[in-house]
């Protein structure tokens, strides 16, 4: 497995890969000054380096992860910690990262390149777009939709049946009780738009 990114998020990803019995061949990073990350050699990205190896993007920022994903030729895989509880009846894309003690319930759909972070809960029939980050401890209730590139902050709660737009930030600890349009920052309880 190749890990792209040699920052804090990559430390957690390497830990999860090892916990799941995987092995890491190398790390790619755009900073040519970095030669070593943990026990792994670091190279600038090249489609010709380890082309048969699957890759995961260890980039926490959703927009940056999106930009990098567009220029990767390697095959993306999901990295899922063994403690995550994922029912059989879900649909999950590629390049996703599911951390320790996450729960994903029946009927949910997870897109591509999402981070479902430590202890987050994605309830039944939720639809999570691409490049979404559900931060630690956040709760996405039943039948909620979360648009592409949205960050649901740590410990936030999205009540059932609402639609969160694309490219939004939901503040840490917020409780969102209504639909949210695209491109806004929302926080508080009940959540209110603070920025467009
Ligand atoms: C492994 C990991 O660590 S994953 C980490 C995942 N990241 C997160 O969970 C962080 C999510 N980010 C936040 O919650 C941020 O506070 C944001 C994005 C909502 C707002 O950040 P900024 O845009 O910098 O706003 P700023 O700090 O200037 O605050 C603006 C106002 O919103 C309020 N506010 C900010 N965040 C919150 C919040 N989470 N809940 C309630 N109110 C908030 C501030 O008190 C301030 O109010 P005021 O104008 O009355 O003083």
From TrEMBL:
Binding site for substrate: 29-30, 60
SUPFAM superfamilies: Trimeric LpxA-like enzymes (SSF51161)
This protein's UniProt keywords: Transferase
Record site: Increases basicity of active site His: 125
Residue ranges of every copy of the PglD N-terminal domain listed in the record: 2-72
GO terms, molecular function: transferase activity
Binding residues annotated for acetyl-CoA, in chain numbering: 133
Active-site residues (renumbered): 124 (proton acceptor)
InterPro entries on file: AcTrfase_PglD-like, Hexapep, PglD_N, RNase_PH_CS, Trans_hexapeptide_repeat, Trimer_LpxA-like_sf
Family statement: Belongs to the transferase hexapeptide repeat family.
Name of this protein: Acetyltransferase
Organism name: Dyadobacter luticola
């Amino acid at each position: 497995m190749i890990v792209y990114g040699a920052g804090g998020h990559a430390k957690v990803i390497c830990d999860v890969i090892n916990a799941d019995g995987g092995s890491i061949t190398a790390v790619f990073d755009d900073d040519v000054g970095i030669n070593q990350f943990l026990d792994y050699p670091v190279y600038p990205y090249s489609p010709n380096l380890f082309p048969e190896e699957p890759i995961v993007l260890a980039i926490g920022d959703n927009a940056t992860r999106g930009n990098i994903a567009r220029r990767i030729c390697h095959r993306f895989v999901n990295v899922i910690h063994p403690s995550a509880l994922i029912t059989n009846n879900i649909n999950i894309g590629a390049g996703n990262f599911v951390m320790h003690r996450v729960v994903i319930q029946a009927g949910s759909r997870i897109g591509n390149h999402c981070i479902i972070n430590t202890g987050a809960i994605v309830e039944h029939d939720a639809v999570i777009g691409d490049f979404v980050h559900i931060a630690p401890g956040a709760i996405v209730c039943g039948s909620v939709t979360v648009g592409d590139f949205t960050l649901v902050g740590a410990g936030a709660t999205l009540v059932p049946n609402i639609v969160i737009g694309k490219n939004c930030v939901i503040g840490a600890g917020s409780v969102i009780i209504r639909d949210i349009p695209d491109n806004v920052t929302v926080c508080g309880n009940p959540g209110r738009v603070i920025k467009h």
